[in-house]
Write a structure and sequence with these properties.
Helix content: 55-70%
Strand order of the largest sheet: 1-2
Organism: Eudromia elegans
Shape: rod-shaped
Keywords: Disulfide bond, Lipoprotein, Membrane, Mitochondrion, Mitochondrion inner membrane, Myristate
Number of helices: 2
Pfam families: MIC19_MIC25 (PF05300)
InterPro entries: MIC19/MIC25, MICOS_subunit_Mic19
Protein name: MIC19 protein
Length: about 150
């Protein structure tokens, strides 16, 4: 019957020229629904013989009532489905937001860890350069000492 919000529809009932069929204007009915409406049923769900007029036609008022009941059931089913879609839509949206927040926190943690590693690498590079300079100083000093010893 279509999704979307509930809307008001104008439905008219009229009998055809033979008075055997009630014509419902403004409503689409599936063959399955029409077959179910033709089947006899009582409010308790039990079947009973159809009420027929002298000409053998189904009681028009009963048919109108059954059509209205079927339309109400279909509307209730549609509303229930729409409510479920809204509920699950909200649930999915909350899950998406939570997932995005979790992902954002993980990215920020990773960026912080990367920055910390970069700074640590810079510190180690500076320490290595200082050790290298110190070793070069010692190397120059010992070469000088060796040269003096060789002169003696």
């Amino acid at each position: 019957m279509g999704g979307g919000g509930s809307s008001t529809r104008r439905v008219t009932f009229e009998a055809d020229e033979n008075e055997n069929i009630t014509v419902v204007k403004g409503v689409r009915l599936s063959d399955n629904l029409i077959d179910r409406m033709k089947e006899p049923s009582s409010p308790g769900g039990r079947t009973h013989p159809q009420q027929r007029s002298a000409s053998g036609a189904v009681n028009e008022e009963e048919l109108k009532k059954r059509i209205a009941e079927e339309l109400a059931l279909e509307r209730a089913r549609r509303d229930s489905e729409a409510q479920k879609r809204r509920f699950f839509g909200k649930l999915l949206e909350r899950e998406r937001v939570a997932s995005n927040e979790h992902l954002t926190r993980a990215i920020l943690r990773e960026r912080a860890a990367t920055e910390e590693e970069r700074q640590k690498a810079q510190r180690f590079a500076k320490q290595l350069e200082e050790k290298d300079r110190e070793l070069k100083k010692h190397d120059a000093y010992y070469k000088e000492q060796l040269a003096r010893l060789e002169e003696r």
